[in-house]
Amino acid sequence: MQRVYSHENMMILSSAKNLLELNGIDCFVKNEYHAAVILQSPAAGCPVEFSLCRIPLSSFDWVQIKHHFLRREPVKITIETLVTAKLETVWDAWNNPDDIKQWNAASDDWHTTHSTVDLREGGSFLSRMEAKDGSFGFDFEGTYTRIVPHQLIEYCMSDDREVSTSFTGTADGVLIRSVFDAESENSPEMQREGWQAILDNFARHVQSVYVK
Fold first, then answer.
1. Where are any strands of DSSP class E within 158-205?
2. 152 Cβ partners below 8 Å, 6+ apart?
3. Distance, C-alpha 17 to centroid of its chain
4. Cα separation of 72 and 24, whole Å?
5. What are the Cα distances from residue 96, in Å, to 125, 152, 157?
6. Span between the terminal Cα atoms of the chain, in Å
7. Complete edge-to-edge strand list for the sheet that includes strand 173-181
8. Could you tell me which of 151, 125, 149 has the C-alpha nearest to residue 139?
């Protein structure tokens, strides 16, 4: 067991906890007070306990801990679905801005209001995703790094995370598999659920609009 003591508030400690868990390290946060004991950056693979204390980590120690984990290979998350449609139909619906505005949402209270696609290596894409009540919105955007027509799309998001999506024709339809780098703000399971919901929404859209 490695212990890291800090006076930071619980929100910051929870963010650190998420960061460690993304790197496969079990940890938990305790709200207790101890004498001034500060350990070095925890070793990879060891459980970590964060505790509140009266004497904080120095800024150097805090940066070293974050650097130790951020420099590691990003966690990869995989999602997939099977679409019962022709490969050409699936490919076109995936890359057509008019279609994207209809399927690109994880839940009914969100939608995509604007979409642009420049489908070529070095080209960019942007989808404006907003809550339907207008309370929040963001641009999901990036740059295409590799395109193999009807087979593969790879891109780098604006935060430098990478995504690879393959399209494989089978006897039952088209298998779509996406592998993406996890971010550190939300748990891997939450990210997987959100991206999977959008992918499932895409399958429903194609099958309801294009499959007779």
1. 162-170, 173-181
2. 146, 164, 165, 166, 167
3. 17
4. 11
5. 11, 16, 19
6. 59
7. 76-83, 173-181, 162-170, 152-157, 137-148, 124-131, 110-117
8. 125
Residues whose CB falls within 8 Å of the CB of residue 9, separated by 6 or more in sequence, listed in order: none
- C-alpha distance from residue 124 to each of 90, 121, 140, 160, 161 (Å): 20, 8, 11, 13, 15
pTM across the whole model: 0.68
Measured between alpha carbons, how far is 157 from 74 in angstroms, rounded to an integer?
14
Maximal CA-CA distance, the chain: 70
What digits encode the pLDDT tens for the residues 48-86?
Answer: 444 443 334 444 444 444 444 444 567 999 999 999 999
- Nearest-CA neighbor of 100 among 88, 79, 86, 117? 117
More confident residue, 136 or 2: 136
pLDDT, tens only, 133-186: 999 999 999 999 999 999 999 999 999 999 999 999 999 999 999 999 999 889
Q: At 34, give phi and psi (nearest 5°).
A: -135, 170
CA distance 53 to 33: 5
Q: Which two tokens stand for residue 2?
A: 């490695």
- How far, in Å, CA of 35 to CA of 185, rounded? 30
User: In whole angstroms, what is the distance from residue 3 CA to residue 25 CA?
Assistant: 13
Decide if 26 contacts 2 (C-beta within 8 A): no
Beta partners for 143? 124, 156
